[in-house]
Amino acid sequence: MRTPIIAGNWKMNKTLPESVAFVKELAPALAPYTSVERVVGPTYVALAAVSEALSGTDIAVSSQGIHWEDEGAYTSQIAPVMIQDLVTYAIIGHSECRAYLGETDEEVNKKARAALAHGIKPIIAVGESLEQNEAGETSSFVGGQVRAALEGISAEDMPKVVIAYEPIWAIGTGKSASGEIAQNIIGGTIRAVLIDLYGDEVAQKIRIQYGGSVKPDNMAEYMSQPDVDGALVGGASLKVDAFTELVKIAAEVKGA
Ligand SMILES: O=C(CO)COP(=O)(O)O
């Protein structure tokens, strides 16, 4: 049985004081839903304060990125050693980082391996563009992204890895994939690749999230899919009520 995981990717939102005030309100609201792993993903500047504000709770913190080197001439970047005591997770390969920061498949792989080497669990995001989707390339493209991201990662480390399927055309657009589409790619493509790479026993332990315009009114549809183990949430993770509702629905649909 895989523990459902709902992670909020705050993207470039909330100042430092806003981040702290938000998690102080969020933590008690999320407290009852212990059957679901709950994760918040603030900006780098708020990581230390949010991590401190959540100490003593079971809500985990994720960074929105990571570099693969421990130090060096990489202006603007954050090394794993700088955040390893502050976070449980790091989001890697988000389509916005791939598009705006030029993050490549090779870098995603280096970052995932560096995260694991520093005790940080990677949430590896994959997903196709609208053009690829319309050209019928979704499965081959997403499968290829997953294989590239996992190159050299051992079966032993894989249960620490989370994969997030986020079709680019569904991010922030209000246009979400249907539950059936999410299940087809997550079960039919991503878990099939994991089975091919690591065997069924390991593959069945790995959590795969859906992301892209997840809202309280479509959450149950995703959570009722057998291979969808949670959600990576942007907009709806910025409001206490909406994020709590998502976690509550995950707890109800997935069972205790
Ligand atoms: O990119 C996302 C999460 O990483 C999804 O964002 P939205 O939930 O705002 O569509």
The number of distinct structural domains comes to 1
CATH class: Alpha Beta
Measured on Cα atoms, how large is the radius of gyration? 17 Å
Which oligomeric form is depicted? single chain
Ions, cofactors and other bound molecules: 1,3-dihydroxyacetonephosphate
Task: Kindly describe this structure.
With 256 residues, this protein is an alpha/beta fold. The protein has one domain: TIM Barrel (Alpha-Beta Barrel), CATH 3.20.20. It has helices at 16-30, 47-53, 80-83, 95-100, 105-117, 130-134, 138-150, 179-198, 200-203, 216-223, 240-254, and strands at 5-9, 37-41, 60-63, 89-92, 121-126, 162-165, 207-211, 230-233. It has an 8-stranded parallel beta barrel, surrounded by 6 helices. Strand 1, helix 1 (16-30) and strand 2 (37-41) form a beta-alpha-beta unit. Helix 7 crosses helix 8, helix 8 (179-198) crosses helix 10 and helix 10 (216-223) runs parallel beside helix 11. It is globular and about 45 Å long. The termini are close together. 1,3-dihydroxyacetonephosphate is lined by residues 9, 94, 166, 171-172, 211-214, 232-236.
Summarize the helices and strands and which ones pair or pack.
Layout lengths: L4 E5 L6 H15 L6 E5 L5 H7 L6 E4 L16 H4 L5 E4 L2 H6 L4 H13 L3 E6 L3 H5 L3 H13 L11 E4 L13 H20 L1 H4 L3 E5 L4 H8 L6 E4 L6 H15 L2
Parallel strand pairs: 1-2, 1-8, 2-3, 3-4, 4-5, 5-6, 6-7, 7-8
Helix pairs in contact: 1-11, 5-7, 7-8, 8-10, 10-11
1,3-dihydroxyacetonephosphate binds next to strand 8.
